Amino acid sequence: MKKTALIALVLSITSLVVWAYGRGGTQETGSYRFVSVERGDVESVVSTTGTLDAVTTVEVGTQVSGRIAEIHVDFNDRVEEGQVIARIDSTLLEIAVRGAEANLQRLEAQLRQLEREYERSSKLFEDQVIAAADLDQAGYEVEVARASAQSARVDLEEAQQNLAYATISAPIAGTVVERGVDVGQTVAASFSAPQLFEIAGDLSQMRILASVDESDIGLIEDRQSVRFTVQAYPEETFSGTVNQVRLASSSEENVVNYTVVVDVGNPDGRLLPGMTATVEFLVESATDVLKVANAALRFRPTEGMMAELSDRRGEAPTRPRREPAEGGEVTSRAIRPEKATLLWYLDDGVPAALRVRTGLSDGQSTAIEDVDGGPGSIEEGLQVIAAVIGSSQNSSSNPFQSQQQNTRSGPPGPGF
Prior knowledge:
By secondary structure, this protein is α+β, with helices and mostly antiparallel strands. It has helices at 2-28, 91-126, 132-165, 294-298, 303-312, 392-397; strands at 32-36, 38-54, 57-61, 66-71, 78-79, 84-88, 167-169, 174-179, 186-187, 195-200, 205-213, 225-230, 238-252, 255-265, 276-293, 340-347, 350-361, 365-370, 383-388. It has a six-stranded antiparallel β-barrel.
């Protein structure tokens, strides 16, 4: 009895496996994941990142050394061109000016004395009291004294200019974005001018310096439309325009990049210098077109689907054409085979295919147009197959596709 029961159990399991295997074969062509044909816009863009900056930024330094005596501006202060923003202690500079003035007075007095002596020597030479060599020597001494006085005047002008440099003025109208010194700090301008302030020009107009890879730089051109986002306002998209593609390149880890300057309006002042912008250069766009998810274009039918399609039709798979309008004709348009793609759908619950030509793609969706079925045979809302649920072919071709069961098991709705 036990042996008989065991044999019966084995036969039952075998029958169940055979039934399940046969059911699995029909499930391969009977359960699908669908995506809809939609109407909308498709855009081709070049994406990169860049840094927001003021159009004009000036670093304010000092040409003289000394202790900071006064500071009249702080971070974020608005300044006008020529406004005094700081002063350096001018004690030593004033002393230098007084010394240059005194030296000039001494040399001018010496010049006047030598000029009087030259006049006396001239009269004596006319009376033939002195030789011509003595007169020439007196004239030479006058010329040397005159040159020395001129040099003293230059020294005085230099001292006066250094004294003027002790007063730091704003070179442009704008906003103070950086202050690098405090009152009492000593600055030395021996070899280079130390930076005291950084002033950004009109922040209502800004720019983005974006780095574009050499493989994409050919798609960028002047006056091209740009949109970008910043982390401070993640839900808002800003716009700009390409102003310049700089010829100078930079190379990092064997990757060549070019800098693209984008003009940006900032009337409300929300965009700040130094913000990181995620930039998209609009290369091409298609408006109000039919589009479908790229997963449907990548779909590869199973052998069962192809066999069933071949049994139903003895010609290339196409969607049944519509009846032409009164007085019209339906013709088939020639296509290049390398551009043809099949979209699979269900026709009364049976897989069918529609030959289409692809257009612009944004990486997620692709614009499509009907080729074999004539204009208008692709409709918005058409449910096309993106994957076979539970198929080994599907899982191997794209392991990242979702394997969730689609609740729809019948054919598309009316009109498909």
